[in-house]
Structure formats: structure tokens, C-alpha cells
Design goal:
The complex is a heterodimer of chains A (102) and B (160). Chain A is mainly alpha-helical. Chain A is built from five helices and two strands; from the N terminus they run E-E-H-H-H-H-H. The termini of chain A are far apart. Chain B has a five-stranded parallel beta sheet with strand order 4-3-2-1-5. The chains are: A mainly alpha (102), B alpha/beta (160).
Chain lengths: 102, 160
């Protein structure tokens, strides 16, 4: 479905995830974060960029992998993105929701 | 189903078994709840305590006897070394799908905010002390304490 955010038209799926990463930019990321009530700090951005890079390299994302990322640890990840951190952070990053159970 | 459209707010998981498949089931459910923004707590009782016992948690096995899903004749399953073999095979498969071992899984859960409780009655029965347990265990509590922890709307309880 179509959605207007940060003055841009973007296409998202029924859960609000971008379906075309080329429509993502930092303003879109900021606006998606605002929808999740998360003001983005420099730490948030480091993680968002890390997730985008992992996705580009076709790495399957999981909480375990976040813990081993060297970018953040699991505790901080939950503090920065409270409530479903992996789902929220990937949505802000404009990449698909990870299909991971761990 | 009327409160908050039946949204699940907290999972209270009781782990009473020490076999690898049951321990993993409880851990995946607790960690998976946190990943969805749902609170989760595990109450370790009876053989479930082995999953948080420092000296035992690295040595949990799958059950090869009395487990029809192993597709192995019961008498074969009872042979010496069979449990260890099946367990090491399963652990290898788990590593392939990025499944952490028991200790790492406990670390992941505590970092994710899963509360871990040890059952006082079972601790007394097995003569375990708090020092014998994984350091992330929050406390040794009674069943009454556990029920108190379980109060509130949207709380679900699960027995493994």
C-alpha cells in the first residue's frame, strides 16, 4: 500500500515495512522512528546502518547475531529499541522483517 | 478475550524437564516473546533446574528412550552412549541453524530481560544452593511467589 511519510510517497506492506529499499532515505527513517516513538540518537543510527549493511550482504538477522555484531549488545539493543527491537529497528531501516525465531 | 483484544503481555513458562528438546522449547518461547515485545519469565522446577545448574547445563541430553519421534527402537535407544550420540547430532544441527547452546541462550535471555526463577521446593529436594545456579537466575522463590509474579491482565502461563 501507498503511504506518504516525510513528504515522500513510499510503498509498504500490511505491517508497515518498506517493500522497496530505494525509497528509503534518512528522513524516511526518522519519520518511521517517530511513528514508533523512538527519537534516533547517533547510537540508533549506527545500528540502523549496520542492519542495512547486513541485509545488503544477505545475512539472516537474529537477536543472536545482533549480540555478536560488535556494534551493540543485546541489552543495549533492547534499551534503544524497546518493545520488539529487531522488528522495530528493521522497519526503521527500511528492510524486511526478519523471519527469525531466535 | 475482551481486555486489549486479547493481547498477550507476559508469558509465564514453567520448565519441569531437563531434556534438551524441552529446555530449548521453553527458551525459544521465552526469547521469542521478548522479541515480540512480550514480557517473559521462566520458573525452573524439578528436572528443569538442570538447565540452570552450572555443572549440568552444558550436559543436557535428548531423550532416546520413550520418545517415539526418535524413530528408533526403544531397546536401541537404551544402549550405552546412544543418548550422547543423539544429543551431539542434535547439537550439530542446532548450530547449523544458528541456535545458541544452553549457556549462551541463558545469556541472551537475561540480556533480553527474561526473568529466571528457581523453585525453592525442588532446590531443597535436590540439595542445590543458589551458588550452584547460573548467575543470571534472579532468585529462588516459592510457587506462591511465582503466582504473585503472574498477576495482571494479558498474562499467559505455560507448562513444559
Amino acid at each position: 500500500m501507498e503511504k506518504t511519510i516525510a513528504g515522500k510517497n513510499i510503498t509498504v506492506n500490511e505491517e508497515g515495512y518498506l517493500t522497496d529499499f530505494s525509497q528509503w532515505d534518512e528522513q524516511v527513517g526518522e519519520a518511521l522512528a517517530a511513528e514508533a516513538n523512538i527519537p534516533l540518537s547517533a547510537r540508533h543510527w549506527e545500528i540502523v546502518k549496520y542492519l542495512q549493511n547486513e541485509h545488503k550482504n544477505q545475512v539472516a538477522l537474529s537477536i543472536r547475531r545482533i549480540g555478536k555484531s560488535g556494534v551493540t549488545d543485546i541489552k543495549e539493543f533492547y534499551q534503544l529499541f524497546p518493545n520488539a527491537p529487531l522488528k522495530t529497528a528493521t522497519k526503521i531501516a527500511g528492510i524486511p522483517k526478519p523471519a527469525s525465531c531466535i | 478475550m475482551s481486555e486489549n483484544n486479547g493481547a498477550i503481555k507476559k508469558m509465564m513458562i514453567i520448565l519441569s524437564k531437563g531434556t534438551l528438546e524441552n529446555v530449548y522449547a521453553a527458551f525459544v518461547l521465552a526469547n521469542g516473546a521478548r522479541m515480540e515485545g512480550i514480557d517473559a519469565e521462566i520458573f525452573f522446577t524439578f528436572f528443569g533446574l538442570e538447565a540452570v545448574h552450572k555443572k549440568k547445563l552444558e550436559h543436557l541430553h535428548v531423550a532416546t528412550v520413550g520418545n517415539p519421534a526418535m524413530h528408533m527402537p526403544t531397546m536401541l535407544g537404551g544402549l550405552p552412549g546412544m543418548e550422547a550420540l543423539a544429543s551431539s547430532m542434535m547439537k550439530k544441527e542446532m548450530e547449523k541453524i544458528d541456535m545458541p547452546d544452553v549457556h549462551e541462550f541463558l545469556d541472551i535471555m537475561t540480556a533480553s530481560g527474561v526473568k529466571l526463577w528457581a523453585c525453592k521446593l525442588a532446590m531443597d529436594m535436590f540439595h542445590y544452593k543458589k551458588e550452584d545456579l547460573y548467575e543470571g537466575v534472579d532468585a529462588v522463590i516459592t510457587v506462591g511467589d511465582f503466582y504473585k509474579q503472574s498477576q495482571g491482565e494479558g498474562v499467559h502461563m505455560l507448562f513444559v
